[in-house]
Design brief:
By secondary structure, this protein is an alpha+beta fold. The protein has two domains: about 5-110, no CATH class; about 140-170. The chain contains four helices and six strands. Strands 1, 2, 3, 4, 5 and 6 form a six-stranded mixed β-sheet that branches. Strand 3 and strand 4 (about 45-60) form a beta hairpin. The longest helix is centred in the last third of the chain and has 14 residues, at about 145-160. The chain is elongated, with a radius of gyration of 24 Å. The structure holds zinc ion.
């Protein structure tokens, strides 16, 4: 505090008390957040640089299989001394509370549509079964799960069956 140029580094591992994230993939309660943290004293306050690593759990957005995904993210935040109105974070009682910036960095890095593998072909929009992970035209451009239901509606409207409409697409 108030000694610009001083620096300290810490390696921490903190278990989560509650789940972080509300999407298809989240960091579950009990997961460890691994942190390499550097605290630098600067004129305005304490500059925090942190490398974070943990593991998220959830479901593949295409095939709905359970999956885990490593999360690695870093952030840098200035914790200003009290009285600096412009700062998002303040040094309070000689401490920097990293929970909010750590949580924000991790939650914002979670994928909105996680996939178990980059070319996961997902579910057949007609049968709902998992498609085999073999390279064909449909696998390279899988139908977004949000549109899959609409695909079923157009099939009904035109009175075609799933296999007929698929033949039409390929011809
Ligand atoms: Zn998948």
């Amino acid at each position: 505090m108030h000694q610009p140029g001083e620096m300290r580094e810490f390696t921490l591992s903190v278990p989560l008390r509650e789940k972080w994230g509300e999407g298809m993939i989240a960091v579950p309660a009990g997961a460890e957040i691994e942190m390499d943290v550097r605290l630098e004293s600067v004129h305005e306050g304490i500059l925090v640089t942190a490398d974070l690593a943990t593991t998220a759990e959830g479901e593949c957005s295409r095939c709905l299989r359970e999956m885990t995904e490593g999360v690695e993210v870093e952030f840098q935040e200035l914790f200003a001394y009290s009285g600096d109105e412009a700062a998002d974070f303040e040094v309070q009682d000689d401490h920097v509370d990293l929970e909010i910036p750590v949580r924000d960095a991790i939650v914002l890095s979670l994928p909105f549509q996680p996939v178990c593998q980059p070319d996961c072909p997902g579910l057949d929009p007609i049968t709902g079964e998992r498609l085999a992970a073999q390279p064909d035209e449909r696998a390279s451009a899988p139908i977004d799960p949000r549109w899959a239901a609409l695909q079923g509606l157009t099939d009904q409207a035109t009175g075609t069956t799933g296999s007929e409409s698929r033949n039409t697409e390929e011809s």
